[in-house]
Design brief:
heterodimer, A: mainly alpha, elongated, disordered N terminus, B: mainly alpha, 2 domains, 8 helices, globular
Chain lengths: 184, 179
């Protein structure tokens, strides 16, 4: 889905929102973006974010991967990657960004990061070493330590990015959705 | 202990922002002061040659935390502030001042910044990491080597804490996905 579609989505929200129907998911979500002051559609912000976002994501991946040889690592890179989604939400509205991103993927990314980290650690035990003993992978490929550490950093990045995005969406939704989920 | 002009200015800025965060009546202004405080601290880390910590402070403290605070603010109703500064509660000042004094007493016991004879710089563990990290782990950044290899188990714990924070937030709000 291109950025244009997201922008169109926002326009649709503006027309459809306003009806007070508690318990109806999408309508309530529309109301959220319609509240004054929370989202302002601005061509300047949308264009800027569209141009800047790919570079920020690249920088995040650079920080994650290059953390082995320069300052940086999974924690820092993950936060920067998460901030890309927040930038998109800032430009195109939180609700349409939430719909654009599959929220199940965010949870899966967090769990996948933990599984990758634990998997690399346990894999070394399976190969006869100790937990997270990267040198055990050396017989499978060259520079295994380096690649193992970089994979671990990537796993940490996935956890941090998805939890940051998740907390952002949760806080943005507030309690309205929670109450609705309880009754449903 | 001598301070360079830059360090002194940064320290003054950080302390000023911290006091501002505590004293400003308007919540939005306090959040902004807190973000500036984080930014000041992250630059201070850079000056003290701890870029890894500085990067984390800038990304988490000044970036994500500010966004989350602003979101929380936008979801709550805050009364308009009719004055700039909060009235000072002297009991709190006494308590915080006492705590700062207590911590401050321990500061002279610390080695000076970049003191080559400091125990942490000449210690056995530090020397071992610096001498062997590249050979043993193949990564040039000794911080990453310690974080992901020598202390990998601790880092796994840290990563799981972040994961658990997300899961706890979900379960408190009774959601299954972050929505």
């Amino acid at each position: 889905m291109s950025a244009d579609d997201v922008a169109d989505d926002v326009d649709g929200d503006g027309a459809g929102g306003g009806g007070a129907e508690p318990g109806n998911g999408p309508t309530e979500a529309d109301e959220f973006d319609d509240r004054p002051g929370l989202y302002v559609e601005s061509t300047v912000i949308m264009t800027t974010v569209r141009v800047v976002a790919p570079f920020v994501l690249t920088f995040a991946l650079f920080i994650m991967f290059h953390g082995a040889d320069s300052p940086g690592g999974g924690f820092q890179g993950g936060v920067i990657a998460g901030s890309v989604v927040m930038m998109l939400a800032f430009a195109y509205g939180i609700e349409s960004t939430r719909r654009w991103i599959d929220v199940r993927a965010v949870v899966a990314l967090a769990a996948g990061g933990v599984l990758a980290f634990v998997g690399i650690g346990v894999g070394a035990i399976v190969l006869g070493g100790q937990f997270l003993q990267y040198t055990e992978y050396e017989r499978l490929l060259d520079h295994a330590s380096k690649y193992g550490i970089e994979l671990v950093e990537l796993g940490i990045g996935a956890i941090v990015a998805s939890v940051a995005i998740g907390l952002f969406f949760l806080l943005a939704a507030g309690f309205t959705h929670a109450v609705e989920g309880e009754t449903a | 202990m001598t301070l360079t002009l830059l360090e002194a200015a940064l320290l003054l800025f950080v302390v000023g922002c911290a006091v501002g965060t505590a004293l400003l009546e308007d919540t939005l202004a306090a959040v902004m002061a807190f973000a500036a405080y984080s930014l000041g601290v992250s630059v201070l880390w850079l000056v003290l040659q701890a870029p890894d910590v500085g990067l984390t402070e800038a990304a988490v403290g000044a970036g994500i935390m500010t966004i989350l605070f602003l979101l929380a603010l936008s979801n709550t109703v805050t009364p308009d502030a009719d004055r700039i500064l909060e009235p000072v509660r002297w009991r709190t000042v006494a308590l915080v001042g006492g705590f700062v004094l207590l911590i401050g007493v321990t500061v002279p016991a610390l080695p000076a910044v970049s003191d080559p004879t400091a125990p942490v710089a000449s210690g056995e563990v530090t020397t071992y990491y610096l001498e062997n990290a590249y050979e043993q782990t193949d990564v040039r950044n000794a911080v990453t080597a310690v974080l992901a290899a020598y202390r990998g188990f601790d880092t796994l714990g840290e990563a799981v804490v972040v994961y658990a924070a997300g899961i706890v937030a979900l379960s408190v709000l009774r959601r299954e996905v972050f929505a």
